[in-house]
Fold:
Amino acid sequence: MSRSAHPAGPRYADVLPEGHYTAPPADLNELDPRVWSRTVARDAEGVVTVGGRDVKQLAEEFGTPAYILDEEDFRARCRAWRQAFGDGADVFYAGKAFLSRAVVRWLYEEGLNLDVCSGGELATALAAGMPAERIALHGNNKSTEEIRRAVEEGVGRIVLDSFQEIVRVAHIAEQLGKRQRVQIRVTVGVEAHTHEFIATAHEDQKFGVPLAHGQAAEAVRRVFGLEHLELVGIHSHIGSQIFDTSGFEVAAHRVVGLLRKVRDEHGVELPEIDLGGGLGIAYTSEDDPREPHEIAKALGEIVTRECESAGLAVPRISVEPGRAIVGPTAFTLYEVGTVKPLPGLRTYVSVDGGMSDNIRTALYDAEYSVALVSRRSGAEPMRARVVGKHCESGDIVVRDAFLPADLATGDLIAVPATGAYCRSMASNYNHALRPPVVAVNDGGARVIVRRETEEDLLRLDVG
Structure:
């Protein structure tokens, strides 16, 4: 991979259109530990290493683009969540963030349960040996086939999302001669995003049964009236990328209010409350996520306080971190292709991937960090936008970033915190081949999800 010189791009002092840029870091070679996985470092030559392997070796062995997953970090985060909540609570990893058979085995070994939301995720969990009783099935429109398999396999809980689903699950359980444990997902009118929560009309969404107008209470009545369903608790999910637990406090107050109504009307105190997931991670140095033990303490205090006020026994708490576990443990490794300075604007840095391996920037206007990882650079910072190779002007990986002004074709750059949703939402747009997931640990590296090939692509095209 030879490096070619090119005209220097705009520097920090240049006047640019309004954007998300902040002041450049004092040292572009520094890797913020809040953003990168725990074993990432630079070696004596300035090459970034992870799990004892350097990225130049990884690129040569596995190609680019590639998702590089730090197994040690993943397992450590699983243990941190498990220890933070203790034996009196359940931690369900949200498989939608990223799921593979290797990840399922890690979850099992580290004592976590698993939340799935499709037949494919359920199949992956079962194929990897996760006991069915440690699996929860979510989804706003579960198919009859998905429900039937879940009941047949004996999943620990099915989270009911509508009145129709109550009847559907009960009917299938009756056909199979089983009594299925269920929770009801309620929409509490609270949606939390980052540091804010908005208590307005958020019943206007596809998920859950609204508390408003007594619909959630009616769902409880219907479940209690069906002998093949066992109602074990209430489920609530208020949003994603949350840094502040204030929204959980409002949600818990409203959910406990429903539990009180259930006790008063039916004489039953439900034993479980699931507060969902959505806990945030650091995508940039400006993000400041909370540690698992802080979250566990805050949620425990909130639920205990609300239950004591309502005269209820404290139920068993469940949480569903997905992004908070896998998100920080992986980065995407790219090779730089075209470097295109636009005087007075910025330098466009094109890589060999793009929106097919990370749609979040285009879809959510998500912000990411990026770093030159194949060498150390003493060049001054230039304003850059990292883009992909797809035929879309919105094919942006990192919208606003600082990279060394000597960046050139053949350099390797990496985008951290791509463990969650990037591979899960990857596509074959422009007939791109989805990258592999490479797990690194203690000097070893192995593919846990292989790179797609042209044969894979053409095999589905039946002509």
